Amino acid sequence: MEGIQKTIRRRRLEGKTDYKARISLLKSGKPRVIFRKTNRYLQAQIVISEIARDKVLVTVNTKDLLKYGWPEKLVGSLKSLPAAYLMGYLLAKKTDLTEGILDTGLISHVPKSRVYSFVKGLKDAGFNIPCNEKVLPEDKMISRKEETAKLINQLKEKLK
């Protein structure tokens, strides 16, 4: 029996999926709020699992913020804290659901980062997501520049 080895799943080998974390998220029974980073944008989805298949309910990308008044000159900052915050706010406004559980995949958890700026946007829009309040960035941190603060207020007005 010593020669038998456990087969490692392909997505685990590629560093894409932590199956242990995934199964615990699925057991909660709540919709998953998925946060992912690409080279240029941030993406978020609300997904429910039905009989071993995921069903995407809502998808939002920081590129969508351009439709809501994000200035063209700030296109390079679509991975910033304010962009993450507004993406969370937009996702919460686009869905009828009121609660979920955060799924960050293999992204490391750094307090006051883009992930938690996104969560703060969700919470400010009325979405209930379990999270320690200490890891969320303060409003000052998100709207550090005056131009950013004005932009956040404008976009929030459009999304109401």
What does this molecule look like?
With 160 residues, this protein is α+β, with helices and mostly antiparallel strands. The protein has one domain (14-159): Nucleotidyltransferase, domain 5 (2-Layer Sandwich). It is 35% helix and 17% strand. It is built from 6 helices and 4 strands, in the order ααβββαβααα. It has helices at residues 10-13, 19-27, 81-94, 114-124, 139-142, 146-159; strands spanning 32-37, 42-50, 53-61, 101-103. The chain has a 4-stranded mixed sheet with strand order 3-2-1-4, with helices on both faces. Helix 3 packs parallel to helix 4 (114-124) and helix 3 (81-94) packs parallel to helix 6.
Question: How are the elements arranged and paired?
Answer:
Blueprint: H1 10-13, H2 19-27, E1 32-37, E2 42-50, E3 53-61, H3 81-94, E4 101-103, H4 114-124, H5 139-142, H6 146-159
Parallel strand pairs: 1-4
Antiparallel strand pairs: 1-2, 2-3
Helix pairs in contact: 3-4, 3-6
Query: How many β strands by DSSP?
Result: 4
Helix/strand/pairing class, anyone? alpha+beta
Mean pLDDT rating: 88
Uncertain segments are: none
Contiguous helical run count: 6
The CATH topology annotation reads as Nucleotidyltransferase, domain 5
